[in-house]
Amino acid sequence: MKRRRSSFQQLLLVGFLLIAALLGGIALRAVFTFDHLMAQSAGFQARALELTAAVQSLAERSANMERASRQSLILNDAPLRQRFEESSREARAILDGLLPADLPPPEADRWRAQYKVLRGLMDGPPETVLERERTLAAEFRDLEAINSTIAQQVQQAIAKRNLALTAQLEASRNNLTRQVIGTIALAVALAIAFGIWLARPFKRLEKAIVGLGENRLQDVIDIQGPSDVHRVGQQLEWLRLRLTELDADKARFLRHISHELKTPLAALREGVSLLEDGVTGELNPNQQEVARILHQNTLALQSQIEALLRFNAAAFEARQLRREKTDLLQLLEEQVDAQQLQWRAHNLKVRIEGEPVTARVDAAKIGTVVANLLSNAIRFSPAGGIIVLKLSSEDGLVRIDIRDHGPGIAGADRARVFEPFYRGQRQPTDAVRGTGIGLSIVQEYIAAHGGQIRLLSDNPGAHFQVEIPA
Fold first, then answer.
1. In this model, does residue 2 exceed pLDDT 50?
2. What whole-number distance in Å separates Cα of residue 17 and Cα of residue 19?
């Protein structure tokens, strides 16, 4: 069974949900941590209030014990003795309620031992009441000192708990900060990874579309990725196959029509030659003029057919680039030297400007581009004119500018100058009329390299600028 592909929209939604889950998870963890710390802080505060109240209550019960015990001892009053017992019982209960973490056991034991001393002074013969009352007062001062020590110990326990809570808060904050930073970094990494992963099929689509635009129909288009992107890739592959078929049909048609035209054209040329040679009899001047016109038109028709075949061959060859590392400045110099006889015969000066630039190109096809542009510049330049070829490189592009001082391109011709078999209005009077395919072949070769050629608005003369990726 074929594996079901997810669409780009579904994958994008999964990516967003995954990132949202990460950020939402850390947010929930932060909320839970904050709630836990708040509850712990509230518990510490409540316990601190309880301890403070217990210490105060212990001091109050000790004061009640002293007052009731001394009065009971002097007055020998049973209700006062009972009040002492109740206060001491409440004080012991408060002391028992303090945990070891709140009060060290030795301090509690000291209080209980002191209580036993006080309890022992409450009993004795009547004649020792005054002596026992004075001793009881001194022992209660010792109990008050013990109460003060207990209060200090409890306050220290509260301070330790506060410090522990503060340290825990700081540790939780640092831990949460690290988790948040880590989660954000992970979310960013996931976003970048998803972006790169999802962008790859679109880059392949872009490459495939550029390939179709540059007429590289031999490259199979197989775009792997989300289902919708894969479907677009399949449509592009169908388009490539269809264009390949149409291109083959066009080539076959051109070959067929050219062959079909050449046969009657050859017979026509042979017949005209026989007429001009007088094989069928002498021609009068008017007949000779007609035969001459027929001869010129058969030559023109043959030239057009051959140009059509050359253009078709050039369009086919443009798809078969043989790229190699090429010194473009040297290539310009070679093309100028190759046409030296032509530009010297017109008394022209050809100047090459620029620094050496190396690029991976099809040297033969770029050489043809330069040769055609230079040939046009020579044909249209007036005697004594200057032709300038300038080579430059910028932003990953190589530029070749060719300027001449001829009549330039007419405004009505500028939009159609690169059309096959189109010849402009301003043709040189002393040169053979061109076929109109030179600039079309130039455009095919430059487009095959992924570049472009422009006709710039410079006066006087024509200025063509070629740009190709370095």
1. no
2. 5
**All residues at 6 or more sequence positions from 434 whose CB lies less than 8 Å from its CB, including other chains:** 379, 423, 427
**Domain segments of the chain as ranges:** 8-189, 227-317, 324-469
- With beta carbons less than 8 A apart as the criterion, state whether 154 and 55 touch: yes
Distances in Å between the Cα of 372 and the Cα atoms of 150, 354, 365, 396 are: 108, 20, 11, 25
Confidence (pLDDT) at 5: 63
Sign of the alpha-carbon dihedral angle for 210, 213, 219, 225: positive
Rounded CA gap, 152 and 59, in Å? Answer: 13
Distance between CA atoms of 211 and 240, rounded to whole angstroms? 9
CATH homologous superfamily of 324-469: Histidine kinase-like ATPase, C-terminal domain (3.30.565.10)
Provide φ and ψ at 412, rounded to 5°. Answer: -70, -20
Domain 8-189 has CATH 3.40.50.970: no
Record the pTM.
Answer: 0.45
Task: Please identify which residue in the block is written with the tokens 């006709």.
Answer: 455
Average pLDDT (322-329) is 88
Average pLDDT over residues 113-124: 85
Rounded Cα distance, 461 and 380, in Å: 9
Using the predicted structure, report yes or no on whether residue 429 has a pLDDT greater than 60: no
Cα–Cα distance for residue pair 345/289, rounded to 1 Å:
33
**Banded pLDDT at 333 (limits 50, 70, 90):** very high
CA dihedral 393, 395, 397, 399 (to 10 degrees): -40
* Domain covering 227-317, topology: Helix Hairpins (1.10.287)
- How far apart CA 112 and CA 115 sit, in angstroms, is 5
Provide the token pair at 100: 């070891």
Alpha-carbon distance of 52 to 48, in angstroms, equals 6
Classify 70 as helix, strand or coil. helix
Residue 165: both structure tokens together: 């809570």
Q: Which residue has the tokens 């973490």?
A: 101
State pLDDT tens for residues 29-70: 888 887 887 888 888 888 888 888 888 888 888 888 888 888
**pLDDT for the residue numbered 205:** 81
Between the alpha carbon of residue 214 and those of residues 108, 235, 324, 450, the distances in Å are 96, 18, 19, 7
Confidence of residue 434 (pLDDT cuts 50, 70, 90): low
The proportion of the chain whose per-residue pLDDT surpasses 70, expressed as a percent, equals: 86
Contacts 24+ apart (CB under 8 A), 27-35: 29/176, 29/179, 30/176, 30/180, 33/172, 33/176
DSSP state of 355: -
Mean pLDDT of the chain: 80
Cα(246)–Cα(451) distance, integer angstroms: 24
